[in-house]
Automatic annotation (TrEMBL):
It comes from the Eukaryota. It comes from Thalassionema nitzschioides. This is Eukaryotic translation initiation factor 5A. Pfam families: eIF-5a, IF5A-like_N. eIF-5A seems to be the only eukaryotic protein to have a hypusine residue which is a post-translational modification of a lysine by the addition of a butylamino group. Transmembrane segments: none annotated.
Length: 161
């Protein structure tokens, strides 16, 4: 063993990790995700038009923004590339809710997260979470959805004691 084995501290970071991946438009399925106008969206429906005189079948996508619920549409030739967001979901327990809606969360491993606020979409979700948590009387788990460097709470469940 050499004296300088501690010289190489390897950090595990997402250096240069992409938040989206390329995919052919024809490969995207209903219920899948895709980027439309720079927004991560969940595909609601796809209609494919026949090949025209220029030889490309077109995919007409109807999708909803996963963070705002806004409906978006896009039309892409099926053989052309588009981008698909990498979407992650994780479960966190609410430790505290501040007056301004800032949350303190903890995961199963004991890691704390303090950079999230109560969601503003759908309109009633924030109030429902506050009511369920009841000033810390109940244990409430929230589902955090993350894509393209945005994180937002999309669901919650009250744990029964």
């Amino acid at each position: 063993m050499s004296d300088n084995e501690g010289d190489y501290a390897i950090e595990s970071t997402d250096a240069g990790a992409s938040t989206t991946i390329p995919m052919e438009a024809g490969q995207i399925k209903k219920g899948g995700y895709m980027m439309i106008k720079g927004k991560p969206c969940k595909v609601l429906s796809i209609s494919v038009s026949k090949t025209g005189k220029h030889g490309h079948a077109k995919c007409n996508f109807t999708a909803v923004d996963i963070f705002t619920g806004k409906k978006l549409e896009d039309m892409i030739p099926s053989s052309h590339g588009t981008t698909v967001p990498l979407v992650n979901k994780s479960e966190w327990e609410i430790i505290d809710i501040e007056e301004d809606g800032a949350l303190t969360l903890m995961d199963e491993g004991g890691e704390q997260k303090t950079d999230l606020n109560l969601p503003n979409y759908p309109d009633t979700l924030a109030e429902e979470i506050k009511t369920a948590w009841d000033g810390g009387e109940n244990q409430v788990m929230v589902t955090v959805q993350a894509a393209v460097d945005i994180e937002q709470i999309i669901a919650y469940k009250k744990e029964s004691n």
